[in-house]
Amino acid sequence: MSEYRLAEQPALDILTAMGYTALHPEAAMAMRQEANRVLLKSVLIEALRALNAGLGIEDAEAIYNDLSTLSDNEKWQRRLRGAYSRRLKGGAKDRPVALIDFKHPDRNRYHVVRQVRVEAQRSRIADIVVFVNGIPLVVIEAKCPLKAADRSGQAFEQIKQYERDIPRLFYPNAFSIVTDGMATLYGATGAPSKFYAPWPDPWPRSRDRFGDDLTKDLWCLLEPSRLLDLLAHFIVFETDPDSGRRIKKVCRYQQFRAVNKAVDRVAEGTKKKGLIWHTQGSGKSLTMVFLALKLKTHLTLDAPTLQNPNILVLTDRIDLDEQISKTFVACGLPNPKQAATVAELRAEVARAGSGRILLSTIFRFQGSKKPIPNSGNWIVLVDECHRTQDKDLGGFLRATLPAARYFGFTGTPIKKSDKDTYARFSEPGETYLDKYGIDDAVRDGATVPILYEGRKTEWSINEAEIDILFDRWFVDLSDEKREKLKQKGVSLALIAKHPERIRLIARDIWEHFKQTCRPDGFKAQIVAIDRESIVLYRAALADVIAADLTKNGIAEVDAMAKAERLIACVFSKAQTDSYPSEDPAVESVRQQLNAHFLDDQEEKDVKKAFKGNIDEPSFLIVCDKLLTGFDAPNEHVMYLDKPLREHGLLQAIARTNRTCSIKQSDGTNVDKPHGRIVDYIGVTQHLDDALSSYRAEDVQNALRDLDLLRRDLRETHARFTRQRRLMGLGGMDEKGAAYAVEKLVSDGREDDWFELQRLGRHFVRTYSDLSPDPAILDFTVDMKWTATFLRLAQQAITKDESLDHLTYSGKIRDMLEVHVRATGLTTTVRLRNITDPDFKDDFQTEGKSEEELHEAFVRKAAELKRVTREAVDKNPAQYGRFSERVLEIIRRFEQGQIAAAEGLKDLEDLTGGIEAEAGAHDKLGMDERAFAILRIMEPHVSDADHTVLQGVAIEVGCLYARAQANQPSWFFMDGYKKELRREVRKLLRPLDLDDANVVRDEIEDYAVHAYAEAH
């Protein structure tokens, strides 16, 4: 009831106030006609006839039937946007059919329905569904904010269950929303929970226009004209270049804001430029895609300046041009064309016509001075626009397109002194048309913060004291050799490449990497001062790693081979690399440069492997390449041994700011907490100087000193300790405190537990972020207590495995495993699998105290909750009833209807049922997947010969197995899937099913998961 009062009802009230009509579930059911259908038929037919002049009732019925069978989210998206036509009764050719009137929002019909039950193999009830013209576009999962389980992701789990179990509701879905009445998050159809995000900025309104956050959030996402804008222009499907999968993406609030500011400026017609700073890692390339999409289609507005403009997207580097081009093409933007040559670009730009999208580099305009006649119909989007003004490139561009509109994009702030960029891309008196800075991205979780630490000062190089440093590092050389080196010129690079210095730093890098990155599978870049230092670092690091691996028992040859594979070098080739030299040192370096140089394909392969989930390579050593435009989310640390300034520094360090979650070998995930810059050259000793050319507010948190994290650790430890004391947990061991908190929660003190949990998580996370810093040593004992307590308390309260443990870094988890064994808590904390020989020990109830029985029930319920959830994910038809039964037993125990001993007996019976089900396929001589298909068919066939049913299930299984073998990506191919559906329908025909199409669709939903996973 509290979910309804605190979340559902307020959401319904807000939506009705915005113009939605609330339908009673029974009224909506009558419009749907059948419980397994999701369209409001009468509303859709009425809307179709109102929006399409002359459309008859027969045609409207046919369109409804057509849409009812459409089972592809991307195709739905295209049809909703207007890419839908069909031959109507009496017509000679196909005619466009509008499903939504985007330009006149008030001509559409808006409904909201609560408790929408959709029947399927596993029927589900969605809390709230938002309909436009009878089409379900948004699903809202409303959760009570007072339930601990909901704070740990249950709402997201339910959305995932709905997407899997009642996919029909999500075929037309634009996005989904999760809210507890206070916090609201939204995410694209099929998106993992980590990609759900808030919408904090209600631009163009101000926050004080709204009475509370829920009203603001639902207005931002669901106010009718904004929802239509989102649907029309801010959803794309991008093809992942590595997996080939289509990934649906919905814009973030800063992208929506920036695009609409730019489009409004074009539509208004008087202002012709704007500068957009969206910090690196926050989706700048997608912002350009959304802008091009809205400029191109502008479904929600009319303006003479938007009739059919040409769009030119420019970068200043070939690799960025390719990156942007791939993004545009992957997102399916209409007709983007990459102009590869100067002649091709000039011909395309000068050609009459409209509606084109060109992608190229700024250098194609070099020397171009003659204006083209139709330049007023061009809109130019310039990426990294601060770099395009040198050498008159900006002048040549504007000479060619004098009347065009110009929008500049940058991933780094513009320098205070950079008058050219502001003059060329900003209106008078304006700096940024839209700004999404470093702090904004970190606050929203779009990027992670970047921490920096300077290593030993004797390794850093102060250019003002370079002669003194030379004498110190080269003291062992003879006077004659020292004098020779001095005559060549004492340079920073000369000192930086001293073999002993590189050897010491290489050892430090490996020790730091082992403690910071390796336990969780993250990776690192080493930025060396020049190409020679790249190969010097490579050799030194390989020696250090090989020696360490040898100490751990690996044969020397194998250790060196492994060390070599862990390192890759990426640099450009020079002409001199192939020249012979009489100087043995120079000749040696040239040989190594040739040996480790990667051609274009090899470099692509190495970058792909670096981004992958294997550890080879773990290090990329570079000097100039990959410091801009290279996105590897799993890069955690940059070891910096090259002096960088201003844009170079900001762009380089941003390689580490991408968010990333890495799946561990035990199936759990660890999130990257931050990026890390380890400075050996001394850049960060003079950070203020390095960034002094920017406005202070633009770069004040570009890098965060570890001293701030040390202070944060002390403060959060103090706050956690105080809350623990206030709750009466002082002096208790972890287990005693966990059961004490369970009692407090049952007595109504959930808020105290939430606050303790929040502070505890922050304390453990901050400790982990600092490790291996010596500052953590004073807090290690309390960290172990806190982490173990949180895990135990989560088990006791929610009968589930603690999310805290699952998201800890590997170094912390290893420490905790040792700790729980030392304290005798292993059997309480560690959840065992049903196949574990000791799994059934808890079912022995004789001779156990009430406390021991309670503990056994908590652990067993948590284990079976996890076991059944994992089983249901693989096969809902087989294991759905077991999952529901576990939850029912837990509910009865928590409500005092059964004692712990009785609950354990029920869980024991349930375990037997799960084991019997797991082995049932063997008894029938079937494989697991064919048996799962049999289970899907059984409820629909009550009187058929079971042997016949088995035979059909085996044939259907073989059909999908062949598809997987012959065409591994069959589940992405609509035509192939349609062919498979026809074949399945034929195989089902002998069973004489009333609802054969429903069974066929349920089998396909299962097969897409089971047979794709087998690949």
Would you kindly provide a written description of the structure presented here, covering whatever features stand out?
With 1015 residues, this protein is α/β, with parallel strands linked by helices. It has 5 domains: 3-224, no CATH class; 251-444, P-loop containing nucleotide triphosphate hydrolases (Rossmann fold, 3-Layer(aba) Sandwich), CATH 3.40.50; 452-695, P-loop containing nucleotide triphosphate hydrolases (Rossmann fold); 706-798; 925-1013. It is built from 41 helices and 26 strands. Strands 13-14-12-15-16-11-17 form a 7-stranded parallel β-sheet, with helices on both faces. The longest helix has 25 residues, at 850-874. It is globular, with a radius of gyration of 32 Å.
Compact overview of the structure:
α1 crosses α8, α21 packs across α23 (about 585-595) and α38 (about 930-935) packs antiparallel against α41 (about 995-1015).
Q: Structural class, from secondary structure content?
A: alpha/beta
Per CATH, which architecture of the largest domain?
A: 3-Layer(aba) Sandwich
* Count of alpha/pi helices: 41
The tally of beta strands, per DSSP, is 26
First-to-last CA distance: 45 Å
Give the spatial strand order of the biggest sheet. 13-14-12-15-16-11-17
CATH superfamily of the largest domain: P-loop containing nucleotide triphosphate hydrolases
- Rounded to the nearest angstrom, the radius of gyration is 32 Å
Descriptive tags:
about 50% helix; seven-stranded parallel beta sheet; alpha/beta; about 1000 residues; globular
